[in-house]
Write a structure and sequence with these properties.
This protein has 227 residues and is an alpha/beta fold. It is 47% helix and 16% strand. The protein contains nine helices and eight strands. The protein has helices at residues 12-19, 34-44, 70-80, 98-103, 118-122, 136-145, 160-182, 189-208, 214-226, and strands at 4-8, 26-30, 47-49, 60-63, 86-89, 108-115, 128-131, 151-154. Strands 3-2-1-4-5-6-7-8 form an eight-stranded mixed beta sheet, sandwiched between helices. Helix 7 (160-182) packs across helix 8. The longest helix is centred in the last third of the chain and has 23 residues, at 160-182. The chain is elongated, with a radius of gyration of 21 Å. The termini are far apart.
């Protein structure tokens, strides 16, 4: 596809999105932080802008910014986005207001939410993007520019914040509980850290992959029976 993609946001998640854009896609990076914008643009072989005037030629515009920025940014795009552009809102909890969508019916505003953790994704962990659209052409464009994710799927993106919250809450809860139980052994903190980082996380991954050893499988069977 002969496309130009603009990434709004050069932070951790924006950088991940920008760095995995296909080589043949023309790239535009937009961020008010010039050093970040320039660095990411150089890394992806694209141009950078400090304002929305840079998105005028973009076929796809990915908003990868914190949720509070979405209303202002989406309103600003009404002036600068070209006819037919696909605007992807990737902020987990951010929503584009309905009146903004109504103001430019020639634009395609699509929520695309990420199931994944930015740091883990950068290290190669699997991640999904759930795209809330029934338009096959729009979906294919979004899927095409996001090859770095394990899967880009059509679905109810409104579920993603709840899913991620459950995963984050229970993961932190487990880490806090493990640290609490390890305190009675009076071991160094770095020992506690490695148990959480390696044993806990590794066991969770093995459980998902159905790759537990005998000891782990027996623990899983007992815990599953208790639920």
């Amino acid at each position: 596809m002969n496309l130009t993609a603009a990434v709004l946001g050069a932070g951790r998640m924006g950088s991940f999105v920008g760095l995995q854009l296909p080589r043949e896609v023309k790239k535009v990076i937009v961020d008010t932080d010039e050093p970040k914008a320039k660095k990411l643009a150089e890394e992806v072989g694209g141009r950078y802008f400090l304002g929305l005037e840079g998105v005028g030629e973009a076929d796809i515009i990915a908003i990868v910014l914190p949720a509070p920025a979405i209303p202002e940014i989406s309103r600003g795009l009404l002036k600068h986005a070209k006819k037919g552009a696909v605007i992807i809102n990737m902020a987990t909890n951010g929503k584009v207001e309905e009146e903004v969508k109504a103001a430019r019916p020639d634009l395609h505003f699509v929520d695309a939410k990420i199931i994944g953790h930015a740091g883990a994704m950068s290290a190669g962990a699997p991640s999904y993007v759930v795209v809330n659209t029934g338009d096959q052409e729009v979906y294919e464009k979004i899927s095409y520019i996001l090859p770095g994710y394990t899967k880009v799927v059509m679905g109810d993106s409104d579920l993603v914040p709840e899913i991620n919250t459950i995963g984050s809450t229970e993961g932190i809860r487990a880490a806090v509980e493990v640290r609490k139980q390890l305190k009675k052994y009076n071991i160094p903190k770095d020992w506690e850290d490695i148990v959480i980082y390696t044993v806990c996380a590794g066991t969770m991954r093995a459980y998902v992959d159905d790759d537990l050893g005998g000891f782990g499988r027996a623990l899983a069977d007992r815990l599953e029976a208790e639920i």
